[in-house]
Amino acid sequence: MKLWEPYKPAPLLRGAFLQTFLASSKIRLLGRNHLDKTSEEMIITAGDGTRLLGLYSRHEGKKSKGLVILLHGWEGSATSTYIQSTGRRFFNSGYSVFRLNMRDHGESHHLNKGMFYSTLLDEVFDAVSFISSMEKEGPVFFVGFSLGGNFGMRIARKCSEKPVDNLKHIVCISPVLDPNKATIKIDDHFLIKKYFLRKWRRSLKKKQALYPDIYDFSDLFPINTIMGLTDLLLKRYSEYSNIQEYFKGYTLINDAVKNISVPTTMIISKDDPIIPIEDFHSLKTNSLTNLLIHEYGGHNGFIEGYLLRSWYERYMVRLFGQYQA
After folding, report:
1. Edge-to-edge, what's the strand order for the sheet holding 51-57?
2. What are the angstrom distances between the C-alpha of 263 and each of 6, 17, 92, 152, 179?
3. What whole-number distance in Å separates Cα of residue 202 and Cα of residue 38?
4. Phi and psi (nearest 5°) for 8?
5. Burial, 43: exposed, middle or buried (Cβ in 10 Å; 0-12, 13-18, 19+)?
6. Cα(272)–Cα(176) distance, integer angstroms
7. Average pLDDT value over all residues in the chain
8. In the chain, N or C: fewer CB atoms in 10 Å?
């Protein structure tokens, strides 16, 4: 395919909620997966001592085309379906792949006493910098999904003051720009809210079991909204005075990313049930930013046909291929 080719889903797959559901459907992982067979666990230590867990699949045989770092969304992990599917596509295309977990995601709750907050950019940036340094010769690319896409945009901005020399391109799929609006939209959709609350409660229970002398969330579990649970957790365990101060710490609207120094592509859909499309229309960007807006795709979906493959996987293989020597 050409580098740019419009995303056209099969007619029966156009529904936003169906696309969002299929993005995480394990059916998409059927078949051989050399990515998993070659992966090894690695713990990356950030500058402040925070430890993040990842899965590294080094491409053997022919010279690697480079390294792709993948970062999941909130309450996802390095083994989320969309991460594994994307990683498999890149690995089969000749790239080494590093699947990074945010703090308290995947099986990493034991690595740090402190809780995860979406504002914790420095530890993710330090991890990405270290992982990039492992690729001695080839280019490095970063792909973030949803909240991971938000991290990707902040990494692109931070590179203007602290460059990562071999980081050539960042792709942000369904990135969160305004977490306040996104949280409201999640709470407005019963099934999406139920999905995230179930995963978040399970994560909090793991943290509480590991550090019972620090955390007791038992009286918070009955809270039935993401907004309400976030608010009370912040009041009890964080230094933020209120939820709006917290959200402001990772909101990316208006001119927040106009000075990024790494080529960055954002892939979004008008029918995303979580991310409001209007925030992207007012986003001020520079010449290094490419904004791809599709009619359909849901959240992290962009499934093309009945084999359940994502359009963005094909697109990114072509996009990153431009950086080959």
Report:
1. 39-45, 51-57, 96-100, 67-71, 140-145, 167-173, 264-269, 289-294
2. 21, 30, 24, 11, 24
3. 29
4. -130, 95
5. exposed
6. 11
7. 93
8. C
> pLDDT digits over 58-86, tens only?
987 667 899 999 999 999 999 999 999 99
Q: Is the dihedral of CA 290, 250, 163, 259 positive or negative?
A: positive
C-alpha angle 295/296/299, rounded to 5°? 125
127: closest CA among 51, 56, 59? 51
> Which structural domains are found in the chain, ordered by start?
11-177+252-321 (3.40.50.1820)
Pairing of strands 264-269, 96-100: unpaired
CA distance 322 to 313: 15
* Token pair in block for residue 319: 């996009």
Regarding pTM above 0.85, the answer is yes
Residue-wise pLDDT tens digits, 79-119? 999 999 999 999 999 999 999 999 999 999 999 999 999 99
Please name the residue that has the structure tokens 């029918």: 271
pLDDT band at 142 (very low <50, low <70, confident <90, very high): very high
The Cα 70–Cα 176 span in angstroms is: 16
User: What's at 201, amino acid-wise?
Assistant: R
Residue 4 region by backbone torsions, left for phi larger than 0, else alpha for psi between -120 and 50, else beta: beta
- Under the banding of pLDDT at 50, 70 and 90, the label for residue 157 is very high
Tell me the residue type at 238: S
Query: Taking 70 as the threshold, does the pLDDT of residue 133 lie above it?
Result: yes
